[in-house]
């Protein structure tokens, strides 16, 4: 039997694995066929993704070695070191539940009865989750996805592409990989640990721009958070720009060197970067 996870890093890597499996669309995997049997769901606010405890609670979980076995109590006990159950009376619970339901519909599955009776949603108990809450990271993407779901001018395939693009995955991520190979700041090149982040802010884009390969950067989840919220940007020559709203201790804790040059951009990327810098500069008003 595989050993339970011993760090939140192992758990979040497995959450990313689970998301990648769902995005891939292979409905024959155990992750798909056992979807309704999962009882406890764990949410990572940095990845903006869910993973079931019996999948993410073991070290080195992959789509090839996951067989759907293992003890739920064992994984729940291991994950309790890093996650706490979300009170169903909290204002956040219905938002995350709605997000989880949308994930299930996206893959053509349903949330099982075990979840509704004895299961629940778990969130990280560290400081990052609280920061994300205050910054409003849950609401904005939820509202965008709800807006896409309600559109009548495009088909279901286009809706799926746009939803996945808002999450930094799917066709948009594939397009971005034609121009980018690694995170500009961390240097990580493993695509399963990177998100495609829109350069021109999502709300200012039309549908073509939202899928355009030059309107994105491959960024590690915590760097995507900073870029998507306007805490950092880039000059055309690749120099990193850091907002005065960002506490310097965050840069230090995440090992982000500043000043830093992050490499040259292509001409079409520079066009989108001008939009991001314009938005970035407008956000320099003190909180």
Secondary structure: elements and pairs:
Elements (H helix, E strand, L loop, with lengths): L7 H17 L5 H4 L6 E5 L4 E4 H4 L15 H8 L3 E3 L6 H15 L6 H6 L1 E5 L2 H9 L1 H13 L6 H11 L3 H7 L18 E4 L8 H5 L4 E4 L1 H8 L3 E3 L5 E3 L5 H6 L13 H16 L5
Parallel strand pairs: 1-4
Antiparallel strand pairs: 1-2, 3-4, 5-6, 7-8
Helix pairs in contact: 8-9, 9-10
Would you mind describing this structure in some detail?
With 287 residues, the protein is an alpha+beta fold. The protein has 2 domains: 8-134, no CATH class; 154-282, no CATH class. 45% of the residues lie in helices and 11% in strands. The protein is built from 14 helices and 8 strands. Strands 2-1-4-3 form a 4-stranded mixed sheet, sandwiched between helices. Strands 5-6 form a two-stranded antiparallel sheet. A two-stranded antiparallel sheet has the order 7-8. Helix 8 (137-149) runs antiparallel to helix 9 and helix 9 crosses helix 10. The protein is globular. Residues 127-139 have low confidence and may be disordered.
Features:
single chain, 287 residues, alpha+beta, 2 domains, four-stranded mixed beta sheet, two-stranded antiparallel ribbon, 14 helices, globular
A few lines on this structure:
The protein has 287 residues and is an alpha+beta fold. The chain has helices at 8-24, 30-33, 53-56, 72-79, 92-106, 113-118, 127-135, 137-149, 156-166, 170-176, 207-211, 221-228, 248-253, 267-282; strands at residues 40-44, 49-52, 83-85, 120-124, 195-198, 216-219, 232-234, 240-242.
């Amino acid at each position: 039997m595989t050993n339970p996870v011993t760090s939140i890093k192992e758990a979040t890597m497995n959450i990313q694995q689970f998301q990648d499996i769902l995005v891939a669309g292979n409905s024959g995997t155990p992750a798909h066929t056992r979807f309704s049997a999962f009882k406890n769901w764990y949410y990572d606010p940095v990845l903006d993704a869910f993973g079931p405890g019996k999948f993410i609670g073991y070290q080195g979980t992959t789509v090839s070695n996951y067989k759907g076995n293992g003890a739920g109590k064992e994984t729940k006990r291991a994950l309790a070191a890093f996650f706490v159950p979300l009170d169903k009376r909290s204002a956040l619970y219905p938002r995350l539940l709605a997000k989880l339901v949308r994930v299930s519909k996206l893959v053509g599955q349903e949330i099982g009865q075990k979840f509704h009776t004895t299961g629940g949603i778990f969130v990280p108990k560290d400081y990052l989750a609280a920061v994300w809450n205050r910054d409003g990271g849950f609401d904005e993407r939820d509202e965008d996805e709800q807006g896409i779901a309600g559109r009548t001018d495009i088909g279901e395939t286009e809706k799926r592409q746009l939803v996945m693009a808002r999450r930094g995955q799917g066709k948009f991520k594939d397009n971005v990989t034609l121009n980018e190979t690694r995170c500009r700041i961390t240097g990580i090149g493993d695509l399963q640990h990177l998100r495609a982040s829109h350069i021109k802010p999502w709300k200012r884009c039309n549908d073509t721009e939202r899928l355009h390969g030059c309107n994105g950067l491959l960024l590690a989840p915590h760097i995507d958070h900073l870029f998507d919220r306007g805490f950092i940007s880039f000059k055309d020559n690749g120099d990193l720009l850091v907002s005065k709203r960002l506490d310097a201790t965050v840069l230090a804790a995440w090992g982000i060197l500043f000043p830093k040059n992050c490499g040259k951009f292509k001409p079409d990327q520079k066009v989108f970067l001008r939009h991001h810098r314009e938005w970035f500069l407008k956000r320099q008003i003190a909180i």
